[in-house]
Amino acid sequence: MILFSGSGIIASGDSLHQEIRLDAGQAMDLVLVALGGGQAVFDVEIAGAGADINLRGLYLCGGNDRLDIKVNMRHSVGESRSNQLFRGIMTGEARARFDGRIVVAPDAQKTEAYQINQNLQLSDDAVVETLPQLEIYADDVKCSHGATVGNLNLDEQFYMRSRGVSLEEARRLQMISFLAPVMEGLPEDVKEQVYAAIR
Predict the structure, then answer these.
(1) Distinct helix (H) and strand (E) counts, the chain
(2) Fewer Cβ atoms within 10 A, N terminus or C terminus of the chain?
């Protein structure tokens, strides 16, 4: 697993634990890339008004990979923003678990917090557990969360195949398109690693 910020790689390894505190006006953009198994934990406290964090992640798991991602996002003060987008593709007998929690404190009015976890499960033996959670103790907020587990769109495949694209390439293009919103801003060499891992 590799964790990127705007300045480059900030952590790598099979097990990552990031404790992050954002004070007033601070902003952070992080992207997690997991090509296989491992564990990643993010403990984030938004402690100042005007703070903003954008946390994205992509994972490709196959074979017997085991992946566990946990996010604890706490808005301790209001007028702050967090956005989480995690997308994964599962094949073989891989197992992935996404456990995402957003807590908005009682005085954290005007908070905006969003979380979504979307997955493609491409084999019957792959397992995806997704547990998005909201704990909201303030009443003037904009918060949402969601999760999906699905398969590749057959209509899209039919459209591409009717124009001469092979089934294998159509599936590959669909997977690249699915991951594209997470890959924005990643270095080209990392994008190439992701493309090479998509089969």
Answers:
(1) 3, 12
(2) C
Smallest CA-to-CA distance from 24 within 46, 57, 9 is with 46
HEC assignment per residue over 28-94: EEEEEEEECCEEEEEEEEECCCCCEEEEEEEEEECCCCEEEEEEEEEECCCCCEEEEEEEEEECCCC
Task: Please report the pLDDT score of residue 6 as a whole number.
Answer: 79
Identify the segments of the chain with pLDDT beneath 50: none
Q: Give the pLDDT confidence score for residue 185 in this predicted structure.
A: 87
Q: Which residues contact 167 (CB under 8 A, 6 or more apart)?
A: 157, 161
pLDDT of residue 20: 97
**CA–CA separation, 180 and 162 (whole Å):** 24
What is residue 79's predicted lDDT score, i.e. its pLDDT?
96
Tell the residue number behind the tokens 């669909």, with chain if given.
174
